[in-house]
Amino acid sequence: MASSIDGRIVTRGWPDGDVVRREYERIHAQYDADAWLCGRTTMEPMAGRVRSGDEVSRQNESDAFRDDFVAPGDFESYAIAVDPSGKLAWQSADVDGDHVIAIVSSRVSDEYLSFLRGRGISYLIGGRDEIAFPLALEKLSSRFSISTIMLEGGGGINGSMLRAGVVDELSVLVVPVADGRTNVPSLFDAGQAVIPVGLELAGVERLDAGIVWLRYRIERSQTVER
C-alpha cells in the first residue's frame, strides 16, 4: 500500500504522484507474487461497469451447494476481486493480462454466475453471506496453485483480512504528505471488531521524493478474529 503520514490511501491530489506510482509499481513487481487482490470498490474502474441495484437484488435463496468455476486456459498471473454481492459487471476476463478470479458469496444469483462463466471469468464461492477468507485462500491455493498474493486494498478489505488473521506481512510506502481529509479510507478500516495488532519491523528504505518503504511482519496468532 501507499499511505500519507496520517494513514490515508486515496492518492488523488498528492504532490509527486508520478513518483509515487512509479515506486509503487517497482515494489509490486519486486515481490513477484502469483496474484494481486482488491476489494470491490477498488476494482470498479477495472471491471468497467457496476450492476444496477435491481440486478444485484436478484439473489439466490437456496442453501444448496454451488460449484466453483475455473475458466479454461493457461494463466500465469491473476487479479482477484472480492465481490460478495456480485456488483461488478466485468467487461473482460483479464486486467492488464492477469486472469480475473471473482470471490463471491453463495447469495449471488444463478444469472450472475452464468454471466461470469460467459465472460470466461473464474469464480469461487467464499461463504454464505460474508467471505470466509481462510476458506477463500485455501481454494485459491488448491484450484489455482496460488501461494503468494499481494493484498492492495482498499481499507475495508485490508481490515477484514487483518481481522481474519490471514495477513503475513505489511509493505507500505509512506509518502511525505499530510492528507488531513475526513471520510477517506485508511490502511485498515474494519470498525470496532479489530483487535489492535503489534508489528515486527523487518525493513526500512528511503526512496525517491522522500518516500519511506516500511516492511513489517505480522504474527497471525495476534490477529485471530474474536
Mean model confidence by pLDDT: 92
Structural class: alpha/beta
Query: Beta-sheet strand percentage?
Result: 15-25%
- The number of distinct helices, counting runs of at least 4 residues, comes to 6
Which class of the largest domain in CATH terms?
Alpha Beta
Number of domains: 2
What's the overall geometry? globular
Distance between the termini: 26 Å
CATH superfamily of the largest domain: Dihydrofolate Reductase, subunit A
Instruction: Return Rg in Å.
Output: 18 Å
Main beta-sheet annotation: 6 strands, mixed
CATH architecture title of the largest domain: 3-Layer(aba) Sandwich
List low-pLDDT spans: none
What's the CATH topology label of the largest domain?
Dihydrofolate Reductase, subunit A
Q: Element order, helices and strands?
A: EHEHHEEEHEHEHEEE
Task: Tell me which oligomeric state these chains represent.
Answer: single chain
Number of strands: 10
The helix content, as a percent range, equals 25-40%
What distinguishing features does this structure have?
226 residues, alpha/beta, 4-stranded mixed sheet, 2 domains, 6-stranded mixed sheet, Dihydrofolate Reductase, subunit A, globular, 10 strands
Structure explained in plain terms:
The protein is an alpha/beta fold and 226 residues long. It folds into 2 domains: 112 residues, Dihydrofolate Reductase, subunit A; 92 residues, no CATH class. The strands form 2 sheets. Strands 2, 3, 4, 5, 6 and 7 form a 6-stranded mixed β-sheet that branches. A 4-stranded mixed β-sheet has the order 1-8-10-9, covered by helices on one side. The mean pLDDT is 92.
